[in-house]
Design a protein that fits this description.
The protein is α/β, with parallel strands linked by helices. The protein has one domain (about 15-360): Alpha-Beta Barrel (TIM Barrel), CATH 3.20.20.70. The chain contains 14 helices and 8 strands. Strands 6-5-4-3-2-1-7-8 form an 8-stranded mixed beta sheet. Strand 1, helix 4 (about 105-115) and strand 2 (about 120-125) form a beta-alpha-beta unit. It starts with about 25 loop residues before the first helix and ends in a 13-residue tail after the last helix. The structure holds iron/sulfur cluster (2 copies). One iron/sulfur cluster binds near residues 86, 129 and 155.
């Protein structure tokens, strides 16, 4: 059975700790819990009537970008665990309170040694809810001491858990950028995706961030909101939405934030399950393939980011990580965070597959939001 507490002695299974509109695929032991099965599900779709029959590599080849190769490494993204206080319907990580995978201290230190070998200016810490990893604060402090820009990808509700209520001030003291996921600035849309009560908790967490100086235009207290569509359609225009959100959140709740980024939902994990169950999968993939935008290729996040999993394996991006597509390995060697080889990583070919159409559709999509601004 699953443990009831985290290393922070929290009961994350309780509804008070965060909404749980579903349970993880992993917990239900359904076929889609397998990354391999997810890839096969996408591969089995008949996209013969779409450009290049829905073959992403062929699309890249036509634009002269195949094989896809990395540019300079700028962002070191560490996914420090799948543990989360929530279980959102659209989660691409299949995170939840039952997921005990958390990065240990040895692997955290291996990440720091690897960071020291790169010129990456940013360390992007994600999860799950990364704040629930007992080594989260150590990792942040070590990255700040190295002069890195640190991003905490935060689900907001986690900031209300009793042992973490000092985090807004703690993060502010270290100039950490907080990138908060919020599906919509309206209650109904947010609670539909993340569960009842999420919106109110998120607003309270945003108030606490505002109270310690986040979201007021200070580059050292940057508050970024991240939104993904509540449905089977592409993210809307980021600039227009940002203005609408700023007005809406200020007028209704007195909340300020600095920037909005919009992401397309990736057809993997629990969002893939939702697409299947709602009979939207075929149509959504057609939308993604037909909306392929060549202008997004140069800015794909896999080109300037390296993604590390909780157990120290290396991936081209967090999506490839969830699909278990490890970085291309050299012939006689295994590359991981413990055996870090930047020279090889800079030469590798990025692994692409059908899910990649989620990154190149419309204005494009990445952890930094739309690619074509
Ligand atoms: S989407 Fe974010 S908050 Fe929701 S379950 Fe996944 S990791 Fe947790
Ligand atoms: S999912 Fe997106 S970021 Fe990841 S490898 Fe594919 S195109 Fe690159």
């Amino acid at each position: 059975m699953f443990e009831a507490t985290t290393p922070l002695e929290l009961d994350l299974h309780s509804p008070e700790s965060g909404a749980k509109p579903t349970t993880s695929l992993h917990r239900r032991r359904v076929p889609l819990a397998s990354p391999h099965y997810q890839r096969e599900t996408l591969a089995a779709l008949d996209l013969s009537h779409t450009p290049h029959q829905g073959n992403f590599a062929a699309q890249l080849a036509q634009q002269g970008w195949q094989p896809l190769k990395p540019a300079e490494l700028e962002i070191f993204q560490i996914n420090i665990g799948k543990l989360c206080n929530m279980t959102c319907r659209h989660c691409h990580v299949d995170a939840g309170p039952d997921r005990r995978e958390n990065m240990d201290l040895e692997t955290v230190n291996a990440c720091l040694r690897a960071i020291d070998q790169t010129t990456a200016h940013t360390v992007d810490i994600t999860g799950g809810a990364p704040e629930l990893n007992p080594h989260f604060r150590y990792l942040v402090d070590q990255c700040v001491a190295r002069g890195k820009h640190v991003i905490d990808r935060c689900n907001l509700t986690v900031l209300l858990l009793p042992p973490l209520q000092d985090l807004p001030q703690w993060l502010a003291d270290r100039n950490v950028e907080v990138v908060c996921s919020l599906p919509h600035y309206r209650k109904l849309n947010t609670d539909t995706q993340r569960g009842d009560g999420t919106f109110e908790k998120s607003i309270e967490a945003l108030r606490r961030l505002n109270a310690v100086g986040y979201g007021q235009g200070n580059p050292n207290r940057k508050l970024t909101l991240m939104s993904n569509p509540v449905g089977a359609f592409l993210a809307s225009g980021q600039t227009k939405m940002e203005q609408e959100w700023k007005t809406g959140l200020m007028k209704n709740y007195g909340i300020r934030f600095d920037r909005l980024i919009t992401l397309n939902n990736m057809p993997i994990s629990r969002y893939l399950e939702w697409l299947e169950q709602s009979e939207n999968l075929q149509r959504y993939m057609e939308v993604l393939v037909n909306a392929f935008n060549p202008a997004t290729i140069a800015g794909l996040m896999c080109r300037n980011t390296l993604s590390v999993s909780w157990d120290g394996r290396l991936f081209d991006c967090d999506f490839n990580q969830m699909l278990d597509l490890e970085v291309q390995q050299p012939a006689n060697e295994t590359v991981s965070i413990q055996q870090f080889n930047l020279d090889w990583l800079q030469q590798r070919h990025i692994k692409v597959d059908r899910h990649c159409f989620g990154c190149t559709a419309g204005a494009g999509s990445s952890c930094g939001g739309a690619i074509e601004k």
